[in-house]
Amino acid sequence: MTEITRTAGKRSGKSSGLTVERVFTTEGVHPYDQVTWEHRDVVQTNWKTGETVFEQRGAEFPDFWSVNASTIVTTKYFRGALNTPARETSLRQLIDRVVSTYRGAGEANGYFATEYDAEIFDHELTWMLLHQYFSFNSPVWFNVGTKSPQQVSACFILSVDDSMDSILNWYKEEGFIFKGGSGAGLNLSRIRSSKELLSSGGTASGPVSFMRGADASAGTIKSGGATRRAAKMVVLDVDHPDIEEFIETKAREEDKIRALRDAGFDMDLGGKDIVSVQYQNANNSVRVTDEFMTAVEAGTEFGLRSRMDGEVIETVDARSLFDKMAKAAWECADPGIQYDDTINAWHTNPETGRITASNPCSEYMSLDNSSCNLASLNLLKFLRDDDTFDVAKFVKAVELVITAMDISICFADFPTESIGQTTRDYRQLGIGYANLGALLMAVGRGYDSAGGRALAAAITSLMTATSYRRSAELAGILGPYNGYARNATAHQKVMRKHQAANDEVRTFTDLDASVHDAATSEWASVVSLGAGNGFRNAQASVLAPTGTIGFMMDCDTTGIEPDFSLVKFKKLVGGGSMQIVNQTIPRALNRLGYTEETVEAIIEYISTHGHVVNAPGLKSEHYEIFDTAMGERAIKPMGHVHMMAAVQPFLSGAISKTVNLPETATVDEIAEVYLQGWKLGLKALAVYRDNCKVGQPLSDGKKSEAKAEAVAEAPVKVEYRPRRKRLPKSRMSRTTSFSVGGAEGYLTAGAYDDGRLGEVFLKLGKQGSTLAGVMDAFSIAISIALQYGVPLETYVQKFTNMKFEPAGMTDDADVRMAQSIIDYIFRRLALDYLTFDERAELGIHTSAERARYVETGSYLSEEDEANLIESEALKNDAGDEVTIHEDGPNQPALVEARPHSTAEVLEKISGLAIDAPLCMTCGTKMRRSGSCYICEGCGSTSGCS
Questions:
Q1: What mean pLDDT is predicted for residues 520-537?
Q2: DSSP result, 739-803
Q3: pTM value?
Q4: Which parts of the sequence belong to the TSCPD domain (predicted)?
C-alpha cells in the first residue's frame, strides 16, 4: 500500500500511462493458441545411486521446448505439493501465475494508459516467455503469484558496522537470505583490525575471525537446504590492516585440505570430512583503489589505515602485497579483485553513499542494504534467418522487460526492512542477456576477435540505452526514484559517460553498424529525456551468469560466456540422452560458404574429436570462430578479459564471469590478468586455474595419483591392443529384405552364441556393379570392426540420419521413413540387436512401442517393465565383478562410463578432467556458468543465478 500511495502521489501533472504496441502477438489470438502443446513425463534420478529424486507425469509444454528445459521448469518452478491438485502441471499455469501478477500490479499503480494497453502488455510478455525470448530470475518463478512472500530479487548487498550488534545482525540477515535460496555480499572493512584496540583496552578480533562464524552459519543452512550452497561474497578493502591475513585465508585452508587428504581423510567435494575446513562457503574479493594499483606499478610503499581514525598504522610494499593476492588466487582461486575507483566513477548515487560491495557473483554493485531483480534476454532469438540482428524487436523486448521489472518493485517483499526501503527508494534493475557466445558463432565471429567484441559492445550499449530511455519515460508517468533529486547531477553525468563510450565503439560490418546506430539514437534520447523527466531507476543493467534460466530458454551459452564445448549432452524425449554437436555450428559453416558435404564432414569430425583443428575442408582462418572455454582451442585468458572490457562501459553494474587459466599458468600470469583488468576499466575480476583445488572430482581418478603411477612405472612399457574375436564356424544369422524409396536389397546379420552382432552383409545392385562392390567393402569393414569390439551403438549414432538418395518410404513397419539406405540399415540393426535402454537413448523404438507411448505415456508394457525391474535387480545382486583375460581385453570399448553432462562429454573426448563439483541433487558433474556452476541434469546452481 505504501508504494501504491507514493507512486499515485507522483502522478500529478504527469502523462496518463504507457501506450503498449503489439509487436510479437496477433490481434484476437492468444499466444497459447499459436503453439502445439504436448504432455511429458518428467522423471529425475541420481545416476550414481539410481534413486528417483523427482517424478511428475503429464507435464504440459510446447513441442519445441527441449526435454532439458521442461525438466528444469517442472522440477524447479512448478509450485504446489507433488501428487496433489494444487500442483502446477503446465507451463501455461506458471506463466499465467507470474504475468497476471505483473499486469495486476501495473494496472493498480498506473503504468498503463488503458485496460487495452494492459492486455497487450500481458499478451506480449506471455509470448516472449512462451517462446523463450527472455526469462525473469529464479525468485520470480519461485514466489510470484504464490502464497509465499513475493520476493523477486536474486541479489542482495548487506552492511556491517564495527559493533557486536551489527555483526550478529549480519549473521541473521544472511541466514534469512540463504534460506530463501538467494545470495548476499558485504564489505567487512568497517570492522576494526586485529591490530587495533577495543574501548575496553583489549585487542580486537578482526574481520577474519568473524568470517568463521558466518561461514559456519552458511554451511549449516546449505546442509539443511541440500539443493544449493549458500552463495555469499566477502569483500575487504586493500588498505585494511588485516588484508594480508584475509588474502591468505583460503589458501591456508587449501593446504589444510591437502594435509588431511594425505592423512587419509575424505576431502573430496561432498566428502564427510571437508566440513571441518573453514571459509569454503564464500567468494572472497579484495577491493583495490587506483592509489594502490599505481603503487603496484611504481613498486612503492602503500599505507594500511586504522578503521577508527583513518591514520596509517603500517606500510607495506604494494607490489609484494599484490603478488600475494596473485599467489593465493593461483593456489585456490581466491581472492578475486574489485576496482573501487572504477566502480564508484560509474555510480549514479554517490550523494547517498559509496558502493562498497557486490552480490556473490559480482555483477550487482550498488548501495549497502539493497537488492536487485534480474531478467535476461536470449540474444540468438533476435538473429534473423538472413543473419541480421532484429534491432526493432530487440528494442521492444527491452522496453517490455524493463517495464515488468520496475512493476515488480511495487509488490515485492524483501528479507529486511532496510533492504526493502533502499530498493523501493532506488529501484535497481538488472536486465542482461544470454547466448552471446552462440550468437557470435552463428554470425561467424570469433569470441576473441575485434569483430566479436564490436558486436557484443553494440548490443550491450543498445540494451542499456533502451532500458534507461524507458526508465526516463516511466519517470515521466510515475515520477523518478525517491533518491534521484539529491543525485540528479551525478546520474546524468553517468548517462553522458555511457553515451561517450558508445561513440568510441568501432564497427566493422552492417551487422554491428545497424545495432550501434540504434544505440547512438537511444543514448541521445536518454540524455534529453532524463534531463526533463529524471529516471525511474538508479540502475538498469548487469550481466548475470543466467545458469538455471539459461537452460529454461534453451540457450547454448550462458551470460557473456563463450561456448563451453562444441559437443553437447542432450536429453531425449522418452528418456535417455545422447551426445550431439552444437547446433549453432552448421549455421555458422553455412554462413561461411561451405558446401553441404563439407559441413557434414566437419560436423562428423567435431563429434569425434571435440574440436575443429584439422577438420576436413575447414580453413584455418575460421578456427577462431569455433574457439571454446575448454578443450583443444580454449580461449586465452586475456580473450575473456578483453570481451569483458568491451561491454563493461555499457553496464550499470558489472559482469559475472571467471577468467579460466590452464594448470600451467604462473603466478605472474594471474597478476597480469588482475593488472590488465584495472587498466581496461573492469569493475571486478575472478580467476580460476585448472586443478588448483584439492576438493574437486576427476573423471578417472586424481591427476596426481596418475602422475605418481606413471613415474613409478616409467621403466616398464605396457601396451594393450584390442583383439579380434572371430565368429564360430556355425553361427546364428538373420536375413531381412527391405525397400527404401523403391530401392530393394537384403541385409544378413550374423551373431555370436550370446546374441551379440558380429558381422553384416549387404546385397544391393547387380553382382559386379560399383554399388555392389562398395557395399561389400563396407560390410567387411563394419564386420571386422564389430569383431574388434567397436560397439554397435557407436555405429548407430554415426550412421542414423545420414542423408542421400534413395530415401523415403520403406516396407518396414518399425522404420516407416528412412533418409538413406544406411540410415535404414542401422536403425534395423538397432531394433534387432540393442537392448531397450540402448535404443531409448538413441530415440529408436518399434511401432508397437510408439503406439503404446501414445496410449499410456510409456514405451514399455506392464510385463516389460516388470521384467526390466527384475533384470536390474539380478544385475545389482551380481555385483561389479569383471573378468579380465590375461592377454588383454576383447572389447575394451564396451567397458565404458557413459557421460551424464556436457562437462563429462568433453572429458571423454579430450581425456582431461574438468574442474567442477558434482550436483548435490542428481550426482551429475556441473559446468561453469559465470562465477558459479550449473547442473545440466536438474538445473541446480552453486550460486545465486
A1: 98
A2: EETTEEEEEEEEE-TTS-EEEEEEE-SSTTSHHHHHHHHHHHHHHHHHHTT--HHHHHHHHTT--
A3: 0.78
A4: 728-832
